[in-house]
Write a structure and sequence with these properties.
The chain has 322 residues and is of the alpha/beta class. It is built from eleven helices and eight strands. Strand 3, helix 3 and strand 4 form a beta-alpha-beta unit. The relative contact order is 0.13.
Length: 322
């Protein structure tokens, strides 16, 4: 999936770095980044707020990623994306900080942490529905013209607001957002409220809108918190006794059936259920780029193997059968 405004072709799978430098040590984080890059990955995702949930770790992810990039022979082989405008951890239910000055402060602080002059993709981490989409697009255009990012997208936005922004940008001949980032996995998020205020998991409306227009979707929580991982495979094969080892927020009758289906398809392909779940995402009718997250280098390599799996339509339908 090409990203308008970016010359590099992104890898099919993006690496999320939310826990790097905070919950995951520098040594382990570098090992994951090395493994991901060694498997052909070049699309790195971070955010201004990552690490802020641990006292004293504000910006930990961006700083660590900046240090790792300094070890690489060529920064130019990587697509670096970060996000700004998220409300503070103390009040995540507040509207997004979408004004020009707020975003400019976040962006420049992110660049300083990353030790970069510019990033490739800048995400607006939250919407502020009290602001017009025109005002927000105008702010993003102004920031883009200052030369510190090449293109931009929206994270956790409703389809109607994204469409309004696209319509405004086209009518005014301004740069338009190029992608949407929301939660999406082979396991459906079954709860009415997200884990944290402001997060948005793909529902039927989101998916229908993305498919109708072919608008790219970059999927966070693409592994459903480990729902399809080895520990949950053992749990499923043991009859689902007790609580799920990982991804308990995704526990539902439907997702248990999807886990068993992925296990069956994985056996036919001599791979892991987690790889099948990612391959299913990669074969959606609209362009989807899964963001993987792990503190384990071997799991990063395993996840990257999903891009090479070829599932039949029958297998894809079997995994998602109601």
């Amino acid at each position: 999936m090409l990203i308008p405004g970016i010359a590099l072709t992104p890898s099919r799978i993006c690496l999320g770095t939310a826990s790097f430098g905070a919950e995951v040590s520098e040594e382990a984080s570098f090992a994951v980044l090395d493994a991901y890059a060694g498997a052909g990955g070049n699309y790195l995702d971070t955010a201004h707020i990552y690490g802020a949930w641990i006292p004293g770790r504000d910006g930990a992810s961006e700083r660590l990623l900046g240090r790792w990039l300094r070890t690489q022979p060529s920064r130019g082989r990587f697509i670096v994306a970060t996000k700004g405008g998220c409300p503070p951890m103390s009040d995540l239910s507040a509207p997004g900080r979408c004004g020009y000055e707020e975003l400019r402060r976040d962006l420049h602080e992110s660049l300083e942490r990353l030790q970069l002059d510019s990033v490739d993709l800048y995400w607006l981490h939250r919407d502020n529905e009290q602001m017009s989409v025109g005002a927000i697009v105008d702010s993003m255009t102004r920031l883009l013209e200052e030369g510190h990012f090449r293109t931009y997208g929206f994270s956790n936005w409703q389809p109607s607001r994204i469409q309004a922004a696209l319509d405004y940008a086209r009518a005014q001949h301004l740069p338009a957002p190029v992608a949407s980032q929301i939660g999406y996995a082979c396991a459906r998020y079954p709860r009415p409220e997200p884990p944290l205020p402001g997060m948005r998991y793909a529902n039927a409306e989101d998916l229908a809108w993305h498919r109708a227009g072919g608008f790219p979707l970059v999927a966070y929580t693409a592994q459903a918190g480990g729902w399809f991982g080895a520990a949950n495979v053992d749990w499923a094969q043991g009859g689902f006794c007790g609580d799920a080892p990982h991804g308990a927020l995704f526990d539902s009758a439907e997702n248990r059936r999807r886990l068993l289906a992925c296990i069956g398809v994985a056996e036919a392909h001599s791979c892991s259920a987690s790889q099948i779940a990612l391959a299913w995402l990669l074969r959606r009718p609209n362009p989807v780029t899964p963001i993987i997250g792990t503190g384990n280098a071997a799991r990063a390599t395993e996840a990257m193997g999903a891009a090479g799996l070829m599932l039949t339509q029958e297998e894809l339908d079997h995994v998602a059968r109601e």
